[in-house]
Amino acid sequence: MLTIPRNAQFADETTVPVLDPGRGRTKTGQLWAYAADDRPWAGLDPPIVVYHYAPGRGGDHAERILEGFDGILQVDGYQGYHRLARPKRKGGVPLRLAACWSHSRRKIIAATPKAGSPIAEAVLARIAALYAIEKEIRGADAPARQTTRNERSRPLVAELERFLREQAARLSPGSEMGKAIAYLLNHWDGLTLFLDDGCVEMDTNPVENQIRPLTLTRKNSLFAGHDEGGRSWARIASLIATCKINSVEPYVWMKATLKAIATGHPQSRIDELLPWSFGRTS
Predict the structure, then answer these.
(1) Residues 93, 209 share a domain
(2) Does residue 94 sit in the same domain as residue 209?
(3) Residue 155 and residue 139 share a domain
(4) How far, in Å, CA of 229 to CA of 222, rounded?
(5) Which of 75, 95, 108, 226 would you label with 200, given CA atoms 20 to 30 Å apart?
(6) Which helix (H) or strand (E) holds 32?
(7) Are 18 and 78 in a shared domain?
(8) What does the DSSP 8-state code read for residue 265?
(9) Mind giving me the DSSP string for 150-171?
């Protein structure tokens, strides 16, 4: 169960090879990645990354891991997360799912023919204008971000929606660009959620950035020996990633922390050993 008390979190998942005992081959497990990073809106809580191992990619795993979390979850278009927004969600009230503009932009780019497309250019230019505003307000507090978004981003989003619906009405639904535009419109509620909350980002890039090291590790590793090995992989990866996102050298932190535990550091002061406290108390 994930218990990070934040208004908004990011989620993603990636595969991990796991030895399947008795069958002489590997199976595909999943490392579910969750991140919370309040720095873009001047939040005071430290950033954190948590990985959970699960033997599959079904949405029931996300539901179990996120039991007790209520708030906004920013995800890509994977439908497994949709059950978290259902009225009968297990483990808490329905979550609000914020969608990812970065994934939407990729859909448009992938649908663009080599000769180019004025439709794609128009959509991408509008999305770029939204990102330019986000660059300006990064680091401002949540109310200030929301005010700017209401004044400047909301009209651009409304204009983009009108344009997309006009194109959807004239394009073949089976065409590549028609499918890409349908993807954006199908996720429109989640894509526009950032307009209503200054704590919400436009995309899932913060957690995607935490997935990439796992991908590199997977390429350099044979497999986890079993499901418990996958869970250990997730625990160690969580510690390392949280160190790195807090600008702490993982090896130095781990060495100092193990030494502190071995020499009797009291459990009541465990907060002093967490990566974001390292260097301030040592």
Answers:
(1) yes
(2) yes
(3) yes
(4) 12
(5) 108
(6) strand 25-36
(7) yes
(8) -
(9) IIIIHHHHHHHHHHHHHHHHHS
Order across the sheet with 8-20: list the strands: 48-54, 25-36, 8-20, 72-74, 96-98
pLDDT tens digits for range 168-185: 999 999 999 999 999 999
Classify the phi-psi angles of 153: left when phi > 0, otherwise alpha if psi is within -120 to 50, otherwise beta.
Answer: alpha
Residue ranges making up the domain that contains 19: 8-98+204-247
| Residue 51 and residue 30 in contact, taking contact as beta carbons nearer than 8 Å | no
Q: Which residues pair with 8 in a beta bridge?
A: 72
Same domain, 111 and 80: no
List, for residues 20-76, the tens digit of each pLDDT value: 877 777 888 899 999 999 999 999 999 999 999 999 899 999 999 999 998 999 999
* pLDDT at site 143: 96
> What is the pLDDT at residue 1?
38
DSSP state of 35: E
Q: How many domains does the chain have?
A: 2
Count Cα neighbours of 179 within 13 Å in the Cβ-side half-sphere: 9
Strands (E), 75-230: 96-98
